[in-house]
Write a structure and sequence with these properties.
The chain has about 100 residues and is of the alpha+beta class. It has 2 helices and 4 strands; from the N terminus they run βαβββα.
Amino acid sequence: MNIMLSSKTVELTEQVKQFFQKKLARLQKFPSLGVRKVEVIVDRVKRKGRNTSDATVEVITEVKGRRFAFKEIGSNLYQAFFRVYSKLEEKFRREVGERKRR
């Protein structure tokens, strides 16, 4: 699985990159979906023209021709990531369930 991380306003340290990659690699437990590419976009939330400590994380992935995008805001980078990851994982679980019923 190809994982791409990008950010305009946040410096992604090696520790953060490794954390994201390790967590997103767990999506391979859904082999029937054929996830090949996951794109993660991280940015700071701006309020009244100023950056805050709040972060926004957007995850975009394509599963057999269908594109899924989830975006969450959290008080920090990790909180936003956990929120968006839980949405993504739940969607994948539902997709696997629908494929089994067909």
